Amino acid sequence: MKTIAVVQSRYGSARLRGKAVKQIAGRPMLAHVLTRAKAIRGIGMVVLATSDKDQDTTLTWVADECDVPVIRGCEHDVLERFCLAAAAFDADVIMRITGDCPLLAPDVCERVLRAYVNDAVDLGFGVGPFVEFVSNDTTCSGFPDGMDCEVFSRRLLYAAQSAVPRLNGRRSDENADTRDREHVTTWMRRTQPQRVIDADDDWRHVKLSVDCDDDLERVRRIFGFVRDDDLSLAATMAAWKLACTD
Q1: SS3 50
Q2: What is the C-alpha to C-alpha distance for residues 16 and 65, in angstroms, rounded to an integer?
Q3: Burial, 126: exposed, middle or buried (Cβ in 10 Å; 0-12, 13-18, 19+)?
């Protein structure tokens, strides 16, 4: 069972343009995400999925520095980019990671992947139904925003690709098909059984992803207390406490 992690990122973020290459602790934000993704045990390969627009060539340079292959496609059809990545690297299982999570903890992603794999093993012994979509949905799991990870089968990814109409160059924020194409797993969430892995503590009030300047400054402060040799959730939350609480 070949598993790849696909990191989606683009330069043209609406709220913080160019955030993928904003500097954090001397490196572009995307470099931190790719480095942490490569540290996830059980992942055979990390792939950057970005757009084919000229401005996103900058992101491919970051990926090259991190020795990460790149898939490029339509800016707003991220679902298509994931399908291209799955086909190009013959993946059976795909882990979805977003490029705005520079404090992503590999051990959290490993928990989500392990739950998926254990379900697959159980299926071989006839133990319960196999759930092809597992996440740690940070809106309800207790994990902090910025530790998001989703794992799903190639079959389910292709099912979403077939079910959601193509954009054909059109984009509307009010269009459900647009949202499904841009956010990759929204169709799966609406229509498929899913399993959510819960955190041991409730960190839902903590925001570690980067959407705006305030988020970026917060993450920069946290990185001042992060150890390069410990990327775990526990170490990250300890750094957050030192940087952001009295």
Answers
A1: strand
A2: 23
A3: exposed
Taking the CA of residue 190 as centre, how many other CA atoms within 13 Å lie in the half-sphere pointing to its CB? 12
Closest Cα to residue 46, out of 108, 109, 136? 109
Provide the residue type at 111 as one letter: R
Q: What is the pLDDT of residue 168?
A: 62
Gap between the Cα atoms of 184 and 8, Å rounded: 10
| 123: confidence class by pLDDT, cuts 50, 70, 90 | very low
Terminal CA-CA length for the chain: 46
Provide the β-strand partners of residue 4: 45, 94
Span 128-181, pLDDT tens digits: 567 899 999 999 999 999 999 999 999 999 999 999 987 665 554 456 668 889
C-alpha to C-alpha distance for 84 and 72, rounded to whole angstroms: 8
Pairwise CA distance, residues 240 & 219, whole Å: 9
Please give the share of the chain, as a percent, with pLDDT higher than 90: 81
Burial of 235 (0-12, 13-18, 19+ CB in 10 A): middle
| 37 in Cβ contact with 104 (< 8 Å) | yes
Q: What is the DSSP letter of 20?
A: G
Rg (CA), the chain: 17
Q: Which residue has the tokens 């409730």?
A: 202
- Arithmetic mean of pLDDT, 26-52: 97
